[in-house]
Design brief:
- By secondary structure, the chain is of the alpha+beta class.
- It has helices at residues 62-72, 96-111, 118-133, 141-146, 182-187, 195-213, 217-223, 230-233, 240-249, 271-286; strands at 3-14, 23-39, 43-50, 79-85, 149-154, 159-162, 169-176, 254-257, 264-269, 292-298, 305-308.
- It has two domains: 3-163 and 301-308, 2-Layer Sandwich (Ribosomal Protein S5, domain 2), CATH 3.30.230; 169-298, GHMP kinase, C-terminal domain (Alpha-Beta Plaits, 2-Layer Sandwich), CATH 3.30.70.
- It has ten helices and eleven strands.
- Strands 1, 2, 3, 4, 5, 6 and 11 form a seven-stranded mixed sheet that branches. Strands 8-9-7-10 form a four-stranded antiparallel sheet, sandwiched between helices.
- Bound molecules: adenosine-5'-diphosphate (ADP).
Length: 309
């Protein structure tokens, strides 16, 4: 029964401007590492966490909660030990908790011989998201598990669709190291929207999906617009407008808030443009005196990856 695997658990960008709570995509160069092992003594244990100050108690760690949700549906559940090597900072807006939840359930499923479907794994990982944010959203765990771009067509019943990823799409992400309280980023959002804004937003979601499938980079760019959340949340992110202007002036297709922020993402066609965008964003943030990280990544079409087995 002793089985062990080391995996890469990717960071993800949720919402993608127009797709609040339904769209997301998976990154390739940013992510955590995890070692998962199965053994005969029952029970789920977080045995090690490096790189972040996160709870070791199983029921307080998203990885533990997600794995327990999976094992509840498995006859004769084995014992599971989880080691987490954190590279994605918690609260960054690039799916830190989602990487742990998705990585853990993916690895356990793999070691058990894949009894569960990707859709099942999304549902288990969502239990981890519920612990992290009080809300079982799938827009980070779905792309971490399925790879590429994903759409949550419906939450009840859960219907998650993997979309097509154009080859040349590149992501630039800046993570300003400031704390945006989840309560603040939630409280600025309104629970009602106007029909006019709804029409504009779902037109853009359709446009983005069509743009991905037809590899129409112009259409992707035109669709990366958010008239509902961005105007309210961007106020909490220093220099958001200046970053967006800098990214667009260097040829980014679009730029917006990653998840609930404070990270900002820009999508570009090709590595060269994505690197120019990174330089321009860096220049904006250098003037603020704030600490920040910048990542340039291609879209990871695979999701969680095995590093060592
Ligand atoms: P992000 O803004 O990057 O999406 P999250 O929404 O992932 O951030 O939230 C991180 C929250 O989840 C923190 O409060 C953190 O303490 C909690 N948490 C619990 N377990 C983990 C874990 N294994 N990895 C990351 N965050 C975790």
């Amino acid at each position: 029964m002793n089985k062990r695997i080391k995996i890469f658990a990717p960071a993800t960008v949720a919402n993608l401007s127009c797709g609040f709570d339904v769209l997301g995509c998976c990154l390739d160069t940013v992510g955590d590492e995890m070692v998962i092992s199965l053994h005969e003594d029952p029970g789920v244990k977080i045995t090690k966490i490096e790189g972040a100050d996160l709870p070791l108690e199983t029921h307080k760690n998203v990885a533990g909660v997600a794995v327990e949700a999976l094992l509840k549906k498995y006859d004769q559940p084995p014992g599971v030990d989880i080691e987490i090597y954190k590279k994605i900072k918690a609260g960054s807006g690039i799916g830190s908790s989602a990487a742990s939840s998705a990585g853990a359930v993916w690895a356990v499923n793999h070691l058990l011989g894949n009894p569960f479907s990707p859709q099942d794994l999304v549902a288990f990982a969502m239990e981890g998201e519920k612990l992290a944010s009080g809300n079982a959203h799938a827009d980070n765990v779905a792309p971490a598990l399925l790879g590429g771009f994903t759409l949550v067509r419906s939450y009840t019943p859960l219907d998650v669709i993997k979309l097509y990823t154009p080859e040349d799409l590149m992501m630039t992400v800046i993570h300003p190291q400031i704390e945006v309280k989840t309560s603040d980023s939630r409280s600025v959002i309104k629970t009602n929207i106007t029909l006019k804004d709804g029409i504009r937003q779902w037109g853009n979601v359709g446009g983005l999906v069509a743009g991905l499938y037809t590899e129409d980079y112009g259409l992707i760019g035109r669709s990366l617009e958010d008239v509902i959340i961005e105007p309210l949340r961007s106020i909490l992110i220093p220099e958001f407008n200046a970053v967006k202007e800098a990214a667009m002036s260097k040829g980014a297709l679009g730029c917006g808030i990653s998840g609930s922020g404070p990270s900002i993402f820009a999508l570009s066609k090709g590595t060269e443009t994505a690197n120019h965008v990174a330089t321009a964003i860096r220049e904006v943030y250098d003037t603020t005196g704030l600490a920040f990280d910048i990542h340039v990544s291609k879209i990871n079409d695979q999701g969680v990856k095995i590093i060592d087995s």
